[in-house]
Each structure stands twice: as C-alpha cells, then as structure tokens.
Specification:
By secondary structure, the chain is an alpha/beta fold. Helix content is 37%, strand content 18%. It has a single domain, classed as TIM Barrel (Alpha-Beta Barrel). Strand 10, helix 8 and strand 11 form a beta-alpha-beta unit.
C-alpha cells in the first residue's frame, strides 16, 4: 500500500451483499405502484398495443379481470383509461353515465372490491379531434377553449366518481381544472373523493405509444398551448402549487424518468404527495432495448424505478407494475 492511501475505503461497504442491502437508502415496494388499464368499448377481445409490446387494449370485462389479477399479485391501485366506440367534437362520451370508463370503473369495483381505482379525467380520448377540450377559433388557429373545457371536465369527474372511482385524475392541463372539479364533486356530495392532478405534465415526445393505445392523437397541431414546455422547468412549482391551492390532494409529474430533477423539485417544494408517471415511451424504450438484447430488462426497470422513487416520488404509475409486483415479492 502506497503512502497516503486513504484509510477510509468505501468499497468496504459494498463487498458483502447483506451489508449492501442493509444500507440501501431507496427501497421499492409494490404498495407504491399504480398500473394503467385501457378499457376499449369497441372490441370483443383484448389486443396488443403495437407500440407497447406486452400492453393491451381490453374489453370492459377483460379489463376488470386483469385488474383483479393485479390485485391478487399485490398491486393496490389501477389507473383506468376509457376508449369509446364513437367520438364527437365535445367529447360527450367522457361524462356519459354508461360511458366506457364508467363501465370499466364499475366492473373493476365488482371484480376487485379492495383495489384503489383512479380514473383518468380528460377528453382527448373522446373528442373526434383528439384535443383535451372543445375548440375555439383563436389567433394562430384553432385551440382548446380553456373555460369551456372546465365544465366538461367537472361533469366527467362527477360521473366517474359516481361510477365508483376512488380518485379522479384530471390530465387536461386546463387552468382552473382542479377548482372546477373540486367544486363539482363537493356539490354532488362527493367531497371525500380525492383529486390526483396531472399538475406538471410536459408536452413530451414520449407520449407517442400512449396515443396509439388510447387512440387520442391530435387530428391537427399539438398540445403545446396547454402542456408544459420541457425547457421551462421553473413553471413546475407554480403549476403544482396552484393545483394544491385549488384543492388537489396529490400532484403528478409526467413523464418521470426523463424529469427526475422536476420530481425532486416538486417533492421538496410542494406540501402534497407526489406521483410520477413512467410513461409509454419510457416503457417502450426499455422493452424494445431488452428485446434486442441491449439491456437486461429486469435490472433496467428496477434501476429506473428506484431512481424515480429516489427523486422523491411517493407513488409511481408504471406499465411494469405487474412485473415489479413479482420481482418485489408483492
């Protein structure tokens, strides 16, 4: 040993697997996971999503059976997306009492009574133009009418809660959506229903596979007038704090793995639990890389999901929830 070699050798803490495990500062648990479920009104059997290998659009009954199987594996919560068989400019199927999301929520409740059901509250799957609210002519072209969208989102949230959703999750990124939904829920006697707000949702290229899954790609333009610019992280705290002030009980950062700095900032700067959505593009990149033999899928998923938690996420929405439940001993 040469003179001056440090007496503190940090590798001593790494030689024994038991000691490494004891000193792990981040521990994943199946209790923190939320699994997305796609219920499709217009299909008779499940079909694989081509951009998301291993994920499926499902008829309502199959979505309920799948949710029940997740519960048996230890997953505590699902996030339900509905895909209607018909669409219109207003997205009216979103708030129909017999809409596909409402049917799916009720079916999941019957199949898995103890499962926490989160309903995605948006209009993009239901409008024939793929935007998150009714359109209005504006300078620069057609755009979503923010204030007109609020009433539709509020009606949708109330309908979902009445169908049995434990939590509603507005994802449209309309200014004032949480206040509108909170007021409507309270007026309907649903004051115990929490709101998980997609408070910090970036206009990301990583949503592409989801838009195939949910059949929600915009027919024109993009969503940059309402979703956040990835280059403007300073707005994240303002968005999250505004939603908490309006009545959000939990806030979300989306995407997750590419925005760990934002998760950390929101977790430290907002007095509310933080969820992070490990989105479709992030899932697809791992899945396809693993299929090509470029990465070890299990190791990559565990590492990335641990990083999301390390950044400060209390809850993680992930398409790998089912596999993680098995890997984590759920």
């Amino acid at each position: 040993m040469s003179d001056g070699y440090p007496t503190r050798r940090l590798r001593r803490l790494r030689y024994h697997a038991g000691l490494r495990e004891m000193l792990a500062g981040v521990r994943l648990s199946v209790d923190e996971l939320i699994a997305p479920v796609f219920a499709h009104e217009g299909i008779g059997r499940r079909r694989e999503i081509p951009t998301m290998p291993g994920q499926y659009q499902r008829p309502v009954a199959d979505a309920a059976d799948y949710a029940a199987s997740l519960a048996e594996k230890g997953v505590r919560a699902v996030l339900v997306f509905g895909i209607p068989s018909s669409k219109d400019p207003a997205g009216s199927a979103a708030w129909a009492d017999d809409g596909v999301a409402q049917q799916a929520v009720a079916a999941v409740r019957r199949a898995a009574p103890g499962l926490l059901i989160v309903a995605d509250t948006c209009l993009c799957e239901y409008t024939d133009h793929g935007h998150c609210g009714p359109l209005v002519d504006a300078s620069g072209g057609r755009d979503v009418d923010n204030d007109a969208a609020l009433a539709a989102l509020a009606r949708t949230a109330v309908s979902q809660a009445r169908a049995g959703a434990d939590v509603v999750a507005p994802s449209a990124m309309m200014d004032g959506q949480v206040r509108a939904i909170r007021g409507a829920l309270d007026a309907a006697g649903l004051e115990r229903t929490p709101i998980l707000s997609y408070a910090v949702k970036f206009a990301s290229a990583l949503y592409g596979p989801f838009r195939v899954a949910a059949e929600s790609a915009p027919a024109f333009g993009d969503r940059r007038t309402y979703q956040m610019d990835p280059r403007s992280p300073r707005q994240a705290l303002a968005e999250a704090r505004a939603d908490v002030a309006e009545g959000a009980d939990l806030v979300m950062v989306k995407p997750a793995a590419a925005y760990l700095d934002v998760i950390s900032a929101v977790s430290a700067g907002v007095d509310a639990p933080v969820a992070a959505y490990h989105v479709s593009g992030e899932y697809a990149m791992i899945r396809l890389a693993a299929a090509a033999g470029a990465v070890d899928e299990r190791a990559a998923v565990l590492e990335i999901t641990s990083a999301i938690k390390r950044a400060g996420a209390d809850l993680i929405i992930t398409y790998y929830a089912e596999q993680l439940a098995g890997w984590l001993g759920g």
